[in-house]
Specification:
The structure is a homodimer of 481-residue chains. Chain A has 16 helices and 14 strands. The first copy, chain A, has 481 residues and is of the alpha/beta class. Chain A folds into two domains: 148 residues, Aspartate Aminotransferase, domain 1, CATH 3.90.1150; 245 residues, Type I PLP-dependent aspartate aminotransferase-like (Major domain) (Aspartate Aminotransferase, domain 2). In chain A, the strands form four sheets. Chain A has a seven-stranded mixed sheet, sandwiched between helices. Chain A has a three-stranded antiparallel sheet with strand order 10-14-13, covered by helices on one side. In chain A, helix 4 runs antiparallel to helix 5. Chain A is globular. At the A-B interface, helix 1, helix 3, helix 4, helix 7 and helix 8 of A face helix 1, helix 3, helix 4, helix 7 and helix 8 of B.
């Protein structure tokens, strides 16, 4: 039989309607322009190594050896030979430190048989989950009388933070009247995942002019409105430090969220992937503020951000506190998250190892420590300086205001003046076409009606910024003028 | 405010009801026993490196250098020094071949800025998708007048094959009356993913006694029954070579499926992850048989199987032919698959690189070729020998029959004799408790009512098999006797 032409197919409308601006029309147009030879500066996404940030030497040296274990013994043998002979063209610094060799051996010894080539447990390698628990306990100053310690059995290695978020939202959203509160503006992973799961996105609006802060009444208003519309709110998402706003939450704000969640029996989803990217103020974790409280807390971390920037390796973790029991079942959330992880078999092993290295950096006084700290500080200082350069450029752009502290990797300036009929989408598209600078319009993240914004990742090298910022200022003042 | 104890939460019942036997109660019990010190032989899952299979040297050497690019120049410098001096403790074979260095450099040169640390395009690196298209064209003997060539823009790098399957099924299942035909027995990824997406699993039953073959009438019967029940069948899954059966489809059977799909306007999902694991007969791809036909075809491949066994690295691809248009939209399936891929950002880069190496092995005559072929043949010969050993043991087990050719990594023997009241689950659990051999009962894959089976992955080293098979025979004959 000859096959016939296929008809259009009805598909899952949730996927059809889902939007993901960070990889939407503006970045797609940028890719087209790049293929035609235009120089593009990709500031639409937090992808530091694509803009020249170097990976941490220690982490990559270890990963490299774990991927090819035969090289560990050889490296040691070569080091010995070069210590005994004097071959001038090879320097001691061409060899990895002894603690790199030891770390690689330790990882291989702790991994179940098969090293990086074997599936791990669905949740991820147990020793890595233990190291994550230690990292959390140390970060949150455990032991102290007001906290409980992290449990490796309630930690899941995930493919970036995104997979963990999906696991939790897919589970929480049981029907099409179930809603999840998210801050506006938000990272579009949340809106997209809620949409795909068939749930309701319930917006709450941190106050831009006061630096994206929020209080209980603002949360209560959002919840009340959702209830009026017949929505059962199941959880609240908080991104701290904020994406796209960069705002860093105070301990008081975190306490507000936890009390609100307790009062209304909500789960808290704390996206803490930018916990190392705080340039003023201090990061406080939800787990620390939760202490011995009984609110269900899901917190997410990632190797993609911080000073690691290992986006491509897709590593991260999800930590659960107070996993809720499941209605009409003897199971709890940890059981069902494990089942979901099982169907994907496991998080990729290179990402797992980089997650391990993120939570187990070279200890103070170790051979690799000095270099590690230098690399870390260089990245973080550079990010801060670049944010400052861009903020200063905003002062020369008519009607541009940028609120809040500097955190994460983004600035989210408000465009108070746009030509009649023009949106922030038009603005960002023109900015791209004119200067090659690829940003994302505020609409992609959500914003208060009547306002216009853009998000820019402050990642390009300073030399490049020094070159493009005057072009942007010129573009801007002509565009709005 | 003090937080209060949280109540049980209503969750997505699809996840609650979803089952995934390959990581279900038997493997979970095995993990418990292992923690108590029992020696477990993990044959419940195709995880070759966990059972001693070595990764391919070429692939890992390249990956290792790509993860730590500074080592490439150093390796070259060291090689030169050792060629000029004579240090007896170091052999030439301690250095990687020149083509490993070249391959590593080429990959880094072709990757977009940032190497493995940067997000790639959502679909995966373009040069890898081009290499996959070349591989498919070569495999399917393109150009020939009856085929069309693969298109890199219709190829997606995925996290294992599983992620690609999920993307397609999540899209196809638009409502709870949409069904997907799957062979019984099947790999539980399919039943689990259909369940999670809220669709209907429509079984068809290849004929065990004739070696798991099937004809059109068998497919028509299954479809007719589904229609009677109000199910709209959207697609048909075929696993070739079969998992768990190992059956290898003939070109005629593939033609039957394609004609059937054309007649009923179904999409075909061809799981071809075991295409290198054919120990008798020949693998023919669905794309080759499809030729210039217009049936929508989604085919899946993976680095986890074959002679690579890189399960932990989570690499694979999805190739689309004749992407269907989407009803009430200007978009087609490639657009929507791209959107789904975007929300996960990209497949992990180490997995992408190993996928590239899978489709671009060292060419004949190259420096690394000989060793590559030796390693490949060793793995495949060993797998075949181990399957034979296990098949021979079955002859000594009362009432055990194993049908079909040997393919994939599994045998799926039928247990014709079980004690009254005992199921194949009971059998596998007792087998585990008695011998440490971890298999999965047939129920986990689905089976004709009234039959009992188990699946065993033929992966343990031959020495270990020689030791455990007599124990299994003894266990079996006592259990059923």
């Amino acid at each position: 039989m000859k096959s016939s032409l296929s008809l259009p197919i009805a598909v899952n409308t949730n996927i059809l309607e889902m939007e993901y601006a960070v990889r939407g029309p503006i970045p797609m147009r940028a890719a087209e322009l790049e293929n035609r030879g235009m120089k593009i500066i990709p500031c639409h996404i937090g992808n530091p190594q694509a803009l020249g940030q170097s990976p941490l030497s220690f982490n990559r040296q270890v990963l490299s050896l774990v991927e090819d274990p035969a090289k560990i013994a050889r490296e040691r043998a070569l080091k010995n030979i070069f210590e005994e002979t004097s071959i001038s063209s090879i320097k001691e610094s061409d060899f990895v430190s002894d603690d790199v060799l030891t770390a690689s051996e330790n990882i291989l010894a702790k991994m179940k048989a098969g090293g990086t080539g074997a599936y791990t447990e669905s949740k991820g390698e147990r020793f890595i989950r233990e190291a994550i628990a230690d990292f959390i306990n140390k970060r949150d100053l455990h032991p102290n009388p007001n906290s409980i310690s992290a449990d490796p059995e309630k930690i899941f290695l995930t493919s970036g933070a995104s997979q963990g978020v999906k696991f939790v939202l897919d589970l929480l959203i049981a029907q099409n009247t179930d809603g999840i509160m998210i801050p506006i503006p938000q990272y579009p992973l949340y809106s997209a995942t809620i949409k795909k799961a068939g749930g309701v996105q319930v917006n709450y609006y941190p106050d831009e002019d006061s630096g994206w802060t929020f209080d209980q009444s603002l949360l209560e208003d959002s919840l009340a409105k959702a209830k009026e519309n017949g929505v059962t709110v199941k959880g609240i998402v908080v991104i701290n430090p904020g994406n796209p706003t960069g705002a860093v939450l105070s301990e008081k704000s975190i306490r507000t969220v936890i009390d609100f969640a307790a009062k209304h029996q909500l789960a808290v989803l704390a996206d803490e992937v930018y916990q190392e990217n705080v340039y003023s103020g201090e990061f406080v974790s939800f787990a620390k503020v939760l202490g011995t409280g009984s609110v269900p807390l899901f917190s997410f971390h990632s190797i993609s951000k911080g000073f690691y920037g290992e986006c491509g390796h897709r590593g991260g973790y999800l930590e659960v506190r107070n996993p809720p029991k499941v209605q009409d079942s003897h199971l709890d959330f940890v059981d069902l998250l494990t089942k979901q992880a099982s169907v994907s078999l496991c998080a990729n092993t290179a990402g797992q190892i980089l997650t391990y290295l993120m939570v187990s950096p070279p200890p103070e006084g170790s051979e690799s420590y000095q270099k590690f700290i230098e690399e870390k500080n260089k990245v973080l200082t550079d990010l801060k300086d670049k944010a400052t350069m861009i903020r200063e450029a905003f002062f020369q752009m008519e009607g541009v205001e940028c609120f809040g502290e500097t955190g994460a990797m983004y600035l989210f300036p408000r465009l108070n003046k746009l030509p009649p009929g023009k949106t922030d989408f038009d603005y960002c598209m023109s900015l791209l076409e004119t200067t090659g600078l690829c940003t994302v319009n505020g609409t992609g993240f959500g914003q208060q009606e009547g306002t216009s914004h853009l998000r820019i990742a402050f990642l390009p090298p300073q030399e490049l910024l020094a070159q493009v910022l005057p072009e942007w200022i010129k573009f801007h003042n002509e565009y709005v003028g």
